[in-house]
Amino acid sequence: MLDAPGGLSRALRESPPDQVAEAADRAIRSTLGATRTDVFLADYRISGLWPVLDPELPEAGFLSCQGMAQRCFSSQQPVLDGAGDGRCRLYLPLSVWGERLGVLLVEFPTAPGPATVEQAGDVAGELAVVLRAADRETDRYRRARRRERLSMAAEMQWELLPGRGVSHDAFQLAGQLEPAYTVGGDHFDWSLDGDRLTLTVLNGSGIGLSASLLTAVTVNALRNARRSGGSLTEQAELASDTVFYQHRGRRYVATVLLELDTITGRVRAVDAGSPRLLRLRGGAVDTIALEQQLPLGMFAEARYDLQEFDLAPGDRLFVVSDGVWAAAPADREAYGEKAMARAMRSTRLQPPAEAVGTVMRELHAWHADTDLRDDAVVVCLDWRGSGGRAGD
User: Residue 302: is its pLDDT beyond 70?
Assistant: First the structure.
């Protein structure tokens, strides 16, 4: 048996980016004695997991794999499934720094021992890193993820995202855009630098491609200031000036900028006509009221003030756009009035990546499963405390 980590790493490095799954398949068969592998990737809506190596998998076989793969994806733990004829399928999460990409299936002729399961987990971790890198060099994996055609605006928005999740000793973070295939201007962005996590959520204005272009300008202006060492207020002011001189006040972007000290839980904030912030502490939900300032780009030379609030270990913070908070289909009360708090409380035992999906599903149900009338963003942040666990 070959050295698994070294053999796989070499095989993946030497393979073309569009052939990473095949290279992993050959290496895993040779290294671990597997009889079959496949890579399942989560779609844009995170409504299912879809095979890369065998996209024509018969429906019965696909549904059989799907249930176990979904359990692995949700729990982020290995799942063993006996096939009934001595064979055994092992499902392993494909995740990079907390971002869940999908699931690796490895089928063995007999049940694997603990050492083989551990070795396969290392293989899955290596493969996930390479898949994330290869995704920028080929369209193959993006095609596997999409269940329908993306609008041009949505294509731009998904390209602009930092990812859909990140995990750290002190926090977990996840976000989701809806409607996934036609989203226009709503967006989120984040960056971790030492003990500082910067998070921005944009409540884009307008619809379609023009909204996506406005958001792209705003996000890149914010990133430019942040990467140049600008403070939170300087990020807001540069982005505001950039948008204003492009549109002369005719277009603007409601935004909230947050900077979390991952050691203390202190949050610095700039509220530029922002999306809503809600905190779940224990079983209680409260709105974090910030003083709203001018949206980015409304006036020239706008200046912004910092505000601050604290998170306690175990706190969960949701940031939602107007498409979530103000959703009021068929003359019902706004989703944010009561339903949002109920949905938040129901996520207490879920990690953020599952929690954003729960809130989005509840939002779709609030719309009676009709299409959302507005773009919607949900971002969920758990602060564990500097010790890495709530209550430390």
Answer: yes
